[in-house]
Amino acid sequence: MKLDATDIALLKALQKDSNRTIKSLADELNRSTTPVFERIKKLEREGYIEGYSARLNPKKLGLKQTVFVAITLQGHTRSYLEKFVKQVNEFPEVIECHRISGTFDYLLKLIVEDIEAYENFIITKLTLLPYLGNVQSLITLSTGKEIYEIDLSHLEK
Asked: Could you write out the three-class secondary structure of the chain?
C-alpha cells in the first residue's frame, strides 16, 4: 500500500491524539466521515497503525527511575538469544528490549520506583539468568527529550 497525503495526515493527527473522533479528523482534513473511517481501518489492517493506548506519566505512578542496561550474553546461538528475549519479556520493569550491534548484545530500558528497586531487579531477576555475560547499567539523571511520535516527513517527498 502506498501512502498518500491524506493517509500521512491521518497518521500525524492520530499520533498527536488517538482519542479524537472521526468527525474531528474528517473536519480537519476537509473530508466526510465515512472515507476517513475507512482509511483508518485500512491503515490498521495494513499494519501502519498497530494499536491505541494512553501515555501514562511514570512519575505520577511512583516510577521515578529510568535505567538503561547494556547486556552481553555468554553465547550467541539462536537458542541463547531466544531464551534471553523470552525471559526479559516476563519482567514488567523492562519496557524496551533492543538487540544491538557493537560491544553489547542487548539494550534494555527499565522504569522502576527508585535505585533500590533497580538493585532488587538486578539481584532477584536479571543476574539469575544462566546465560548472562557482562551487564552495564546506565542510570538516567534527567531526560532532555522523550517523544512518542514518529517523524513522517520522509513520506511527504
From this structure: CCCCHHHHHHHHHHHHCCCCCHHHHHHHCCCCHHHHHHHHHHHHHCCCCCCCCCCCCCCCCCCCEEEEEEEEECCCCHHHHHHHHHHHCCCCCEEEEEECCCCCCEEEEEEECCHHHHHHHHHHCHHHCCCEEEEEEEECCCCCCCCCCCCCHHHHC
Which CATH number do you get for residue 103? Answer: 3.30.70.920
Domain that residue 28 falls in = 5-54
Pick the closest to residue 16 from 57, 52, 59 (CA basis).
52
State the total domains in the chain.
2
pTM value is 0.88
Residuewise pLDDT in 10s, the chain (157 residues): 899 999 999 999 999 999 999 999 999 999 999 999 999 999 999 999 999 999 999 999 999 999 999 999 998 888 889 999 999 999 999 999 999 999 999 999 999 999 999 999 999 999 999 889 999 999 999 999 999 899 999 998 7
Q: Are residues 69 and 135 in the same domain?
A: yes
